[in-house]
Amino acid sequence: MNDPTRFELDARAREMLEEMGVRVWWPLPEVSTAAAATPAVAPVQPATDAPAAQQAPALSAPPVSSRASMARAAQSEAVAPVVSNAQTAGPVPQVSSLDWAALELAVQQCQACGLCHSRKHTVFGVGDEQAKWMVIGEAPGENEDLQGQPFVGQAGKLLDNMLRAIGLDRQATGPSGVYIANTLKCRPPGNRNPESHELDTCAPYLVRQVQLVKPQIIVAMGRFAVQSLLQTTEPIGKLRGRVHHFQGVPVVVTYHPAYLLRNPADKAKAWADLCLAVQTQQGLPAA
Ligand code: URA
Q1: Residue 97 is assigned to a structural domain of this protein
Q2: Pocket perturbation via mutation, ligand 1, pick of 120, 121, 138, 187 by most ligand atoms within 8 A of CB
Q3: pTM beyond 0.70
Q4: CATH code of residue 274
Q5: Closest ligand 1 atom number to CA of residue 257
Q6: Tens digit of each residue's pLDDT (9 = 90 or more) over 181-237
Q7: How many structural domains does the chain have?
Q8: 32 located within any domain
């Protein structure tokens, strides 16, 4: 009865799920009196018998310094570390007391790591600054760097569909609102993986964003977002399916939309993760 994938879906959510590639196989409530009388049935496509860890792709762990970065940033009042390496152009300011405008300006002006030299735009975040939901991705790609907005490429389209499937919209405020941010605010050249010192350096900005949004739920997408927030080397396949916490905020882990574009068979698992997040945010008991 408490299966996290059991909740009502309207026609729009069904459309979005179909676009995600998640097959919805139970009847519409209006065409089934039985459905109206009983809880919605799990929408997720065929579960396999193998444990998630066996199904999940192997993801290698980031360096320890990056895994610890979010916790260190949170514990140190979100004072950004000064990075000493040849590419560092200047220190990050203290951000723990900044409001939204000052924080965004600090990001725009940031020269604390080498990424500032190759970026076209910083990518701060988008959405309802008081949203109950926060989605955290990894780093801007080429399109995001050009436009200064997170998740505007193909992965962003999939993300928008995933969010719409659970009634969220990056342009909405109120109950449908969501705030979207990345772990890194600048694009790694050539879309390479973030380096540990870049994650360390940028972490205080994200910590402050979480403090300002005060979300009821965080959905962490992808290896670097997940492992930085949760300080763990566990692969996503082992972390998903249960609720974690960051600074007291529940965190649900899932695959990155770009990964899902390459591995569409895992979209059903991502849907199950979103359902767990909905259930957690709504304060429903665990399945
Ligand atoms: N991938 C991310 O993690 N973030 C973006 O903004 C775009 C792609």
Answers
A1: yes
A2: 138
A3: yes
A4: 3.40.470.10
A5: 1
A6: 999 999 999 999 999 889 989 999 999 999 999 999 999 999 999 978 998 879 999
A7: 1
A8: no
